[in-house]
Amino acid sequence: MFTDSIEIISKGSDLTSDQAEESMRQILSGQVSSEEISAFLMGMRMKGESINELTSFVKVMRNSSIPVEVDASRAVDLCGTGGDKSGTFNISTAAMFVVAGAGLPVLKHGNRSVSSKSGSYDVLLELGGVPNLQKTGVEKLYNETGMAFMFAPNFHPAMKHVMPARSALKIRTFFNMLGPLLNPANVKYQLVGTFSRESALKMHQIFERLDIDRTLTVHSHDGLDEVSLTSKSDLFETNRGNSTHQFEFDPTTNGYSLVSMKDLLGGDAKHNAEIIKAIAENRSTQAQRDIVELNAAFAIYVANQAKDFTQAKELASKSIDSGEMKKKIELFAGESQKIASE
Q1: Which of 138, 171, 179, 326 has a CA that sits 20 to 30 A from residue 145's CA?
Q2: CATH class of the 2-64 domain in this structure
Q3: H helix intervals, the chain
Q4: How far apart are CA 297 and CA 231, in angstroms?
Q5: For the whole prediction, is pTM greater than 0.85?
Q6: Around 176, how many Cα atoms within 13 Å sit in the side-chain half-sphere?
Q7: Burial of 250 (0-12, 13-18, 19+ CB in 10 A)
Q8: Residue 48: which region, alpha, beta or left (left: phi > 0; alpha: psi -120 to 50)?
Q9: Distance (Å, whole) CA 120 – CA 98
C-alpha cells in the first residue's frame, strides 16, 4: 500500500526499486489522494532521494508518457530544470535554433513559465510558433523540419494527479529535477542545465542508468542552469561505453570574455523573443550572442557532431553568421502554424 511507502521514508529509509516504482505508478494512476502525495513528497525531501529511487521514478514516468515516434537517433535536447531565479532570457530556446541551423536535429522538451517570466513555451509563442502541438503534429513538424518542441503537459497527462499537491506545497520537490529526464521522443543526446551542483551530479548519475548515449549535465558557479559567461561551470559527462567524468569549463580559456549577470538578463516573453531575433540577425549585444553560441556549441559537442569543443563552437558561430539560425526560427513558426491549422 502507498501508506507503507510513506511509513518507510518517514523513518529515513530508502525505498527499494520495486517499492519506488509501485509508489510512482499509484501516484500517476490517481489511486492516492493529494494529501498522501504531499506527505510522500515532503518525506522524500526530508530524507533525501536516493539515485535508485529517482531512477525508478523516471522509468515509470517515461513509460506513462505519450511517445513521440520519430527517428531520434541523431537528435539532441537542450533544456534546463529552471529554478535558478536568475532572470536571464531564454538561452536554451535560442540555442535550439542555432543547433538546428548547424544541421543537427533538435527535439526540445519544455514547459510554460513556472519560476521565471518566460518559459520555452512562452517565448516560442512570441516568435510566431505554435508550441502546443499534440503527438501527430509534433511528429509531422519534426519530420518536415528536423526540429520540434514538445509541450510537457501534452505528453505527460498523468502528471495532472501531482499538480494539486505540488501547487499546495509551493516548494521544490524531486519533480523539478526529473522533468528534463522525461523527453517523450527518447532522445539519445542531451545537454541539461540544473539549479545546483548537487542536482547536476544526481542527474548525471541517473543518466548513467538510462538508455541514452551521451549527456552533459551542467551547473555554473554563478548559479545559472546553463553554461555561463560570468563564471566557470561544472559539467558532468555520461558517455555510454566509456568512462564518465567531470570537468570544469572556463569561458576565458575558450575564446570568450567574462560578462556580468546584468548583461544576460531578459524580461517577459515578448522582450526575450526580441533578444533571440536580434541574435539571429547579428544585432544583439556580444554577451547575448556569446552565451547562446556557447550553449549551442556544447549541444553540438554532446551529440557527437564535432570532434571537440573548438569545432562545435565554429559550427554554432557559422549557424548565426550565415543566417541559418534565423531561417530555422522562421521555418519553425511557419510550419507549426500550418500544421496547427490543418
Answers
A1: 179
A2: mainly alpha
A3: 2-10, 17-28, 34-47, 51-64, 91-101, 120-126, 135-145, 152-155, 163-169, 174-178, 197-207, 269-280, 286-302, 309-321, 324-341
A4: 17
A5: yes
A6: 24
A7: exposed
A8: left
A9: 15
Q: Taking residues 80-89, what's their average pLDDT?
A: 72
List pLDDT tens digits, range 289-335: 999 999 999 999 999 999 999 999 999 999 999 999 999 999 999 99
Q: Where along the chain do its domains lie?
A: 2-64, 76-155+185-336
DSSP state of 67: P
pLDDT tens per residue, range 87-130: 899 999 999 999 999 999 999 998 886 545 678 999 999 999 99
> What is the architecture, at CATH level 2, of domain 76-155+185-336?
3-Layer(aba) Sandwich (3.40)
CB 254 within 8 A of CB 309: yes
β-pair type (147-151, 189-193): unpaired
Nearest alpha carbon to residue 145 among 341, 328, 337: 328
For 145, the grid coordinates are 523540419
